[in-house]
């Protein structure tokens, strides 16, 4: 038996390729699913089925949840439940044929082969109950009752008000694997872009071929969970949290909120994380500190009128170009000596020392605070 199991493991990729080919040739609706996604689903279910066969048991709760999540993804791709069941039958039949072939090669006796094949069929039959539940949930969604239900689920998932067992059970209806890691997000479309357009972009690029993503409109913004950073091509802003288990997305969502708020306040677009934003979330939150630094480093320039504005632009470019004289002067279209004169004048007026790391950091903080240009507390409502 050990040699048989080892041989099955060695032939996994062959099994996957042959089962995928058989399904695509016998089930027309399989064309609706990308080839890589179909093969990955086959690979996961094959491993589960063979483990259950060796352990002489039915699917455990984790396996049932994962296969149900995959069924939900097929449902959203437009595959009917009849086609899904036919695909499972084709895959199971081909698995049994290949198992008999490998068993003969390994000298496995016929009684043991029959028992192994029976276990695989039994495992496949057990998954059909969860398939039916997933497709019923999909039907409710298509009939118009699904979106409020989805919104309630996403809100509860992101705010941590679902028990772990309930979160796992309900997640499968939306194609999420309870055992996977997800990134919480909050997003807002750009001016002139409707929310549905941004939602479609997130759904189609935030997972594996659109799988493993749930999006809902919550409190006016798009919120949810995905498996990778989406590509939104200028359609808006997505604040993205760090990876977390599905039942522990609350902290990830809080960081996604901060990322979105900060990006909105600083006029940043695209997909942003807290790492992308450097110290800007703290600049946004610590308003009193920021204003104090503005008073120290920037307000003394006001007495110079237009030249003060020029000095502020000069130090901004100087910091932006890594405090390199030649590159900064080129960006400002001035001679290097002119730049040095301006920097000296700035230091005289403010008492700053541009060779002092603390002063440079405080000056950058003041300049970034100045960029806000409006009440940051209004960022979420803008």
Describe the structure.
By secondary structure, the protein is an alpha+beta fold. Helices cover 64% and strands 9% of the residues. It is built from 15 helices and five strands. A five-stranded mixed sheet has the order 2-3-1-4-5, sandwiched between helices. β2 and β3 form a beta hairpin. α1 (2-10) crosses α5 (81-106) and α2 (12-26) crosses α3. The N and C termini lie far apart (66 Å).
- Order of helices and strands, N to C? HHHHHHHEHEEEHEHHHHHH
DSSP strand tally: 5
The dominant shape is elongated
For the biggest β-sheet, the strand order reads: 2-3-1-4-5
CA gyration radius, whole angstroms: 29 Å
Biggest sheet statistics: 5 strands, mixed
Spans of 5+ residues with little confidence (pLDDT < 50)? 374-382
Average pLDDT level: 86
Summing up helix and strand content along with how strands pair, one would put the structural category as alpha+beta
Report how far apart the termini are: 66 Å
Tally of separate helices: 15
Describe the structure in brief.
The chain has 382 residues and is of the alpha+beta class.
Identify the notable features of this structure and list them briefly.
382 residues, alpha+beta, elongated
Topology:
Layout: H1 2-10, H2 12-26, H3 35-55, H4 61-76, H5 81-106, H6 110-159, H7 164-171, E1 181-189, H8 195-205, E2 214-218, E3 221-226, E4 236-245, H9 250-266, E5 270-272, H10 280-285, H11 287-297, H12 306-320, H13 325-332, H14 336-350, H15 357-372
Parallel strand pairs: 4-5
Antiparallel strand pairs: 1-3, 1-4, 2-3
Helix pairs in contact: 1-5, 2-3, 2-5, 3-6, 4-6, 5-6, 11-15, 12-13, 12-14, 13-14
